[in-house]
Amino acid sequence: MQKSNSILKRTPIKLLHIVISVVIIAILPIILLIRIFERIIKKDIMVFNKNKERGLIGTFIHDKWLGETYTAQNNRVFVYFLMPSFGSFLLFVAFPFLQGFYYSLTDWTGLNTGDENFVGFDNYISILKDYRFAYSFYRTLIYAIFNIGLINIVAFSLAMLVTQNLKFKNIYRAGFFMPNLIGGLVLGYIWKFIFDKVLFSLGGIFDPSLLIGGETAFISLLIVVTWQYAGYIMMIYIAAIQNIPQDLIEASEIDGANSIQKLRNITLPLVAQAFTVAMFLTLVTAFKQFDTVVSLTQGGPSTQLPQWIGSIYNTTLLPIVKSTDLISMNIYNEAFVNYNMGIGQAKAILFFVVLLSIALIQVYYNKKKEVEL
Amino acid sequence: MKSKILKLRLLEALGALLLLLFATPFLVVIINSSKNAIEVKEFPLGIPENWFQLFTNIAEVFGRDNIDYIGSFFNSFIITTVSLVAIGIFSAMAAWVLVRTKKNYSFIIFMIFLSGMVLPFQVVMLPLVRLMQSLKDITGISFLDTYHGIILAYIGFGAPLSVFLFHGFIKSIPMDIEEAAIIDGCTKAQVFFKIILPILKPIFVTLLVLNGMWIWNDYLLPILVLGTGGDIQTLPLTVSMLAGNYNKEWSLILTSVLMAAAPVVILFLFAQKHIIKGMTSGAIK
């Protein structure tokens, strides 16, 4: 009873909060960045200066009733229309990104914001010396390779299935797409229950739970993510398959092609563009994987460092590492559990550079295989 | 001919089987959220003795003092809808002026947007939190743990993809329509809101679906900007807190999971036709 009272009491405050927020969202980016743009668009400065003399309301009246030249209106609209999204993008994405390069060169620890020292490339050196990071990177790479393969194969097969002339194909599409609606975090809890309780109760290879063994937990994570993401990638393939001109398929049938030949010589080359997109998307999401890991395995379970990584780092005993400690999880823990924000940021930048180069290579090779009609 | 029909029948059966496989986790959730703790322990796949246990469980989740389920649902709803509308309209506005202004700087701005698409969130997240803290010192407006803070961040992060898709779509709209409207006495802004925005409806729907799935389920940005245990909590944060609090009381965790998932799934089932159409016909290029 008391609880519902407290919710009712808070509602008007929340509503006020929302109104204020909406007003700020509309106005703030304009206020913050308009001055920068005055300089970029020099042509407009004349108009702006005039407007400054007139003031805000004066400008409005002038524009509305006294008219202005078409070009001036054009430039003004350009600035005002671009501002909200470009402003928030610059403020919350581009600016932090650039700041990040500086922070990665400091001993920023998060607790003492403001008094970090410049330490040069120390963070990067300590990362390269850290076998945990090497292991995490290696696991992410393996994870990404399997993830891309599995999801694309499953998604393409599903897409081939539901583009056949089936009676309930729309229901199948909706069903396969469904896991995508639910976030990775929630899905992780569902599957944790399935692995820990449901499959466990069946016994056999599921006892002990798959999430306890290092490799089996890794495989479980792959299964969960494939189940989640295949439906989404399937949609991309469906769109591509439906775009294949029907006459090409008919012509090949008249020429006596069987279904495997049709798949190899017509469908696959013509959906190559979709492969580029789908592989790019799965690559990026595999590297960024975070929330499913949080709820399914918390990065664990513990396992031994592989021999070959140990020999590179000259560790006498093979230390214990976490088997699903993917890179994103590693960065998060470094920053918010160990409070080594500077090192975390340096890791993030290394991660970004590697991801960007892999993605560029992937897109370049996939693009080569595309055919134009 | 006969073999063709047989083949279709087989494929139909395969589809049904796969559908069942995909749906099993959902069924498991529904079954087990209608059980009490002892039943779950006995045999998770068994049919619950009393389906009304579900309501008891829901009441229990609502009743916990430290968890405000209704509040977090409300927050998620506000944040998602405001961000979706804002991202949609603002990105469309930006894309439109970028397409129609054929200057060097508009091309450069478009390229800056595009480069944002390959930027993983992990690279930006630590400086972002710090920026939001220092913005409070500069402007006196708090950004962490507020609605406008997270919504503005979503507008920024949603802009690259949305601008890219709108840009591609607007390029195919003939200029003649706009010129006709201007001759009829429309101002520039009116041209956009009365002529262009209605034409953008199909791609707008696609973006609502794509961004909606992302924002509603997002975990990393809310946990950074809103924090655990702050005034404003979204559904994923609340579910993770519930799971932590209940400590293996699976029937209650699954009930909260069901409560978090049900609204989206129900919405999807009602608007399924539009969503699937938006996804497949939408310009995922």
Write up this protein:
The complex is a heterodimer of chains A (373) and B (285). Chain A is mostly helical. Chain A has helices at 2-40, 45-66, 70-103, 122-128, 131-162, 169-177, 184-202, 214-242, 246-254, 259-270, 272-288, 291-296, 307-312, 327-336, 341-369; strands at 302-304, 320-322. Chain A folds into two domains: 12-101, no CATH class; 125-369, MetI-like fold (Orthogonal Bundle). A two-stranded antiparallel ribbon of chain A has the order 1-2. The longest helix of chain A is centred in the N-terminal third of the chain and has 39 residues, at 2-40. The model of chain A is unreliable at 1-10 (pLDDT under 50). Chain B has a domain at 74-232: MetI-like fold (Orthogonal Bundle), CATH 1.10.3720. The longest helix of chain B has 32 residues, at 2-33. Chain B is globular. The chains are: A mainly alpha (373), B mainly alpha (285). The interface between A and B is large, with 104 and 106 residues.
Summarize this, please?
The complex is a heterodimer of chains A (373) and B (285). Chain A is 75% helix and 2% strand.
Give me the strand/helix succession of chain B. HHHHHHHHHHHHHH
- H/E element sequence of chain A: HHHHHHHHHHHHEHEHH
Question: How many helical elements of chain B?
Answer: 14
CATH architectural arrangement of the domain at 74-232 in chain B:
Orthogonal Bundle
Strand content of chain B: under 5%
The overall average pLDDT of chain B, rounded, is 84
Oligomer: heterodimer
Q: Average the pLDDT over all residues of chain A and give the rounded result.
A: 80
Low-pLDDT stretches of chain B are none
Q: Structural class given helices, strands, pairing of chain B?
A: mainly alpha
What share of residues of chain B is helical? over 70%
The chain pair forming the largest interface, with residue counts per chain, is: A-B, 104 and 106 residues
Rounded to an integer in angstroms, the radius of gyration calculated over CA atoms of chain A is 27 Å
Low-confidence segments of chain A, given as residue ranges, are 1-10
CATH topology of the largest domain in chain A: MetI-like fold
Largest sheet of chain A: 2 strands, antiparallel
Helix content of chain A: over 70%
General shape of chain A: globular
Rg of chain B, nearest Å: 24 Å
**The level-1 CATH class of the domain at 74-232 in chain B:** Mainly Alpha
